[in-house]
Structure formats: C-alpha cells, structure tokens
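Anyone have tokens for Phosphoinositide phospholipase C? Sequence:
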Amino acid sequence: MASTGNGLRKSAHVLFIQGDDNLQAMLVGAMMRKIKSRNWKKQRYFKLEDDFMTIWYQSKKAGNVRSTFSVNDVEAVREGHQSEVLLSIADEFPPDRCFTLVFRGRRGNLDLVAESAEEAQSWIWGMRKLIENVENMGEREKLDQWIGEWFKKADKNNDGRMNFKEVQDLLKMMNVDMNEHHAHHLFTMADKSQSGTLENDEFVLFYKMLTQREDVLKVFQEYSVDGQKLSQSNLEDFLREEQLEGDDIQLHAKQLIECYEPSDKGRMNAMTFDGFLMYLGSAEGSIFNPQQRGIFQDMTQPLCHYFISSSHNTYLMEDQLRGQSSVEGYIRALNRGCRCVEVDCWDGANGEPIVYHGHTFTSKILFKDVVSAVGNYAFKVSQYPVILSIENHCSVEQQRVMAHHLNHILGDRLLKTILDGKAPIRLPSPEDLKGKILVKAKKDGGLEQSLSGMVEDSLNGEVSDDDEAAEIDEDHPHHESIHCRLKKSKQRLSKELSDCVVYCKSVHFTSFKHSRIHSKFYEVASFTESKARKHLRDAGAEFVHHNSRQLSRVYPSGFRTDSSNFNPQEMWNAGCQIVALNFQTAGEGMDVNDGLFSQNGCCGYVLKPSFMREADVRFDPEMPQKRDHYHPVVISGQQLPKVNIKEDSIVDPLVRVEVHGVPMDQAKQETRYIENNGFNPMWYDTLHFTIHTPELAMVRFVVEDYDKTSKNDFVGQYTLPLSCMQQGYRHIHLLSKDGTSIPPSSLFVYLRIKHLE
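Reply: yep, here.
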C-alpha cells in the first residue's frame, strides 16, 4: 500500500520533509521506554510510517504484533516531567529525555523516555510539526489522507495494489452492503490498465464512483445552467435562496470560488461540482455559524450574567468511590475550556493538605500539585477567569498551608483584593477578571469588613458549606449508615485562607425570600441536583431572579457513584451559572455541555439571554409564553445522506434529533432506519419542532445503529445551540462518544427556521 498512499500525497510530503532532520529521524525510528508506572517500564521500538500520519511501535520480542496510532489522535506533546507518571520516575530519568503524548478525548496519555536528549528533541519537535500539519490541512488534503488510509486498510499484502478480494473486504469495512456483481462492475470500470488490480489513480476513481453524492449533485444541477458548473451568478442565487445569506453575497460567492474550486480553469468566476462539494463539506458549509465560533458576546457584564463551564470533583478520572485521583483531571478540564474546577481538601501527612473524595477509597494527590496544574493550564485556551471551588475539610494549620500554596504558586494571578479598592455593588465581569484565579470557599465576614480591616480569626465558622456528604443526609435522612459514615465537618476557618476569598463567598441557602432581603451579590449557594429541581418546580421564576443577582452552583447527587451526569439544560433553564458535571464521563450531559460552550470562542463563558439577566423581568421556565417579546420558532430539517459511520459491520442507521430547552420545548423525533447501509444512507425524512424559548434551546443530532432485539448502538452525535445554527443545505460533522471528531462522518441536512407571530 505504501506506494499508493505516497502516490496520492507525495508532492506535499517531499516539500514537507525536505531539510527536516526531526522527521527524517522519526522515519528511521527509535527505541524508547514506554512508562506506565514506577514499576512498569518497557522498551518499545517507535517509528513514523511513510504516510506521515501513522506511528507504529512494538516490543523487542520477535513476533510481537505492532500497535499503531494516528497523528490525528494526538492533541499535544508535553516536554519533560509533565505528567504524574514521569514525575514519579524523575529520580531515574532526566527531564530532557522525557516527553508525553496527550491524546484527544478521554484516552490515556503515552509517557515516553528516549535514549538521549537529542532523540527526545527529534520526537518532540517532529510530533509538533506533524500535529501542526494536520491542523493546517485543507479539505482536499484531508480527503486525500482519508482515501490513503482506506487503501492502506484494504491492501492486506502491502504490494501497493488492490485485488478484487481486497476490494470486497474494503466494502465491508466501509459499511457498504453491495452485491458482488455490482462491486465487480465498479472494480472493472476503475481498472483502466486492465491489470486485474487497482493502483494510485485507479483507486481514487473507484473511491469517487463509490462515494458519488447524488443528493448534492441534484442540488448543484438545480442551479447550474449546463450541469457542469455554477457561474458566480448561479452561486449567488444558491446562497441567497437556499442558504438565506444576506450580507454582500457577490463578494462571498467570489471568495468561495477562490477558496474551494480545485481547477484553475474552473476558478475563472465559476465553481465545478468538486468545488461545490468542498464548500458544503467545509466549516462555512457546516451547520455551525462560523461568525459565532470566535468571541462575539459582550464580556463586560457581571459574572452572574453568564453560564460558566464547570467541573465536579475535577480530580477524579473514574468513579466516585474507588477511582483514581489525578492532576490530569484538572489539565484536561481546563484544556476543554472549563472555568470552574473543584478541589476537595483534607489533612494529609507531613503537614501537606491532600485532595481526594473524602470517606471513599479514591486515591490521594497533593493540594500543592493541583494548584500548580491550575496555575500552569488555567489560561492556555481561555483568558477569562478560573474559579477554584474549594470544599475544605482541613485543620486550621493545614488551611494556612493551603493559603501559602495559593499565594506562593499562583502569585499575582490569584485575586486577593477587590479590583478598584472601592466597595462594589455588583460582581465584576469576565473582561475585568481576565487572567485571574478566584477562590470560592467559606469566608469570615464580607467584602465590607475586608475593606475596613475588621475581620479577625474565626473561632466558630464552619469550614465547608459545600460538603456533598451532608447533602446526602439532608435528602435522605433515613439512610442511617450513610448518615453515620458521612458527617459534616465543623472546624475553624483560618484568616489566611479566608483572605483568599473575594467575590465568591460560599454560603448556605435558606430560601429565596431570605436571599432577597439578606444576601450579598458576592455570595454563592450550592445546590445538589435534587434540591435545584425542587426549587425549579416550586419557584422557577424566583430561582431565575435570584440568579440574575448572584452566582449559584449545582452539582450531581452523591448517589451518582458511577460519575454519571444529569442534563445541565434543566439547571440553565433556571439561570444557574455554575452547573458542575463529571467531565470524565461521556454521554448526553457532557454532549449538551460541550455544545453550549462550543460558541463564543470556547472560552467557558456564555452570556445568558436578556430575560434572565434583567432584575425587573420575570421569566418562568415552566411558562415561557408569558414573557415579554415571546417569539416561538418552528425548525424543520430533512435528513439527507451520511458518509461512513462505523467500521467492521454493516449497520442499520437512524437519526434522532433532540431538542433540549425549557420543559415545553423538550422533544425527540427519529427518522426511520435504513437497512444495511452505513456508508451513504438516504432518509429524506422531514422533522418539525416548535420551540417556545429559542434563546435557551440546544439541538442534538444522534446517529444510532438500529437493533430490534436490544438497545441501539451509538454511532456519533453533534450538539449545538439553536442560536448558532445556519439555515439551508448544511453538513453536520459528527463527533464520537468522547467528543472527538470522526472525519469524514457527517449528516447532510436541509434546515429552515420560521418565526411564528
């Protein structure tokens, strides 16, 4: 296969590697140690394949099977002792020989030790160049790469050719249930050399015949005068009538031709079918409005006017009872744009506070290591503030150690005083707090006393008001065994730690009436999910109003010991800002969370709708039609084809469209399933939804493999805010269960949104 993979992309790669000694060294390969723990260190031979996309490795033992991974799967390279595993062997191997490959999604890191510092540098810089190359690939290059990968899978004997038996195996891998006669017909048509095998351009031709997009061709021909190309004027008509574009269509059509038309002849003010296909498959042709990808919202409102991406028990990598605790949890959450992380602190040995899930068998990590990780990664993907939500069970002595670490490690990034020295009347904005880390915890007194310097060391303050164990007791008073095992801490609070809290003072919630009269804008109440639901049911409008003035945090029930998640949408409906989820657990809850925060630059802050921010507006999520400026919408979408959704078995795909929003908007509809076609099924089903509060609605597209005897298998999904959806003919690029892209898997839809009067 090697010759075909290179044949498809050779010219690009010759330029790519010329003069790059690091990539040349990777092509030769190197023996390195793969490290899993202090006691598990095995030698493996690592080598970059000549497709410049695949790395394989195997042990020294003869006959061992090679393992491979794709450069596509690698998110970043960390240099030196930048993982817990490599830190544990720091006394054995110097940092200049160590590096970590960080994979996308929830896959574990790969920790490696090279034989020399020079070899480590070759792999570190070589990998970074390969990652950068993948990120900068255009649509055509990505398609070339994908075709090359399929050829490689099909070419079992690695002779650079594909016989008919290999073609049949390829069709099965691609989910194409095609009869042998038709498959042989396509094979013969592609075999221009009549050699009985396919190579290079013949395979590309075979692939094009296999993936002929009749659906897109039909749309193309509706606007093309000669069926061969779209003139710039034809393209303008398509953008105006189907894509509902209004701003400077003439300029945009010209730019699209320049950007996506592959042929030089075609680029003369016209777009061929290949160019049209490239445009519809690009970011501009996707369902997500590119103008809302970057930061486009007003970032100068008070913190309580934003939904804030938030993690629960951030240190846990697995379940809540026996799982591993790791600083990696903080790194991964922060790198996903999370802006509020949780730290459960307990007294540790040698005077050093530790972090773990108290009264369980989860492993323990040092508080100072958590603070260091937060300091190092807080602002890698977003400059907006990070909130450290501290659940504190430590003695006064170790609280002082905590305060020391916060001050010493974070330095000026830790917010220690109010911003302008004057008594504020509302929370500062994300813009005001850029580059700052805020501590949310118990505090003696309030901002007023802090300003006047009247606060003394507390003698009776309860350390923690966020103790989740206590919430289990309150929700289930009859669970005596739990009640005995999980008791609420009542310890003194040190002045040093109290002084680290400025705008996020943790308080116990009494009632909305009490809050209206007594609460301060800088006070934060925490609710277990069941308590939040009860308040939402009993006094939804009051809850929304409360959250227009101050922050609220909601976290999963203590009975979710498997680290499962609730759907955050129901809490956003009440205007709750800090809706904490178990980031380590894939599923609907995290899909909806990722969908909301995929807008506005993935910065972790999304501005709430105006009717949830204004104190004089009453919004009840149970009765959305009663608000001012009520404008419901109808969305309708037609499911068109899908390309390549699942390997190794023929699937029966169906699409489910879910709307998550206020209770009146919650809805699900499914297409029928298509038998034995996971490669290019066509549904042509039309689904309609009426949405009463479009500003809060999230839309989730799920592809499943239908199974009449058991639960359907998940294939892929994509979730986004309704407000970010583009109308017209759009591709939806599906994500895996882990939230990583699975190119070129996509749905093709036709979407319309109509306002009801």
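The chain has 23 helices and 28 strands.
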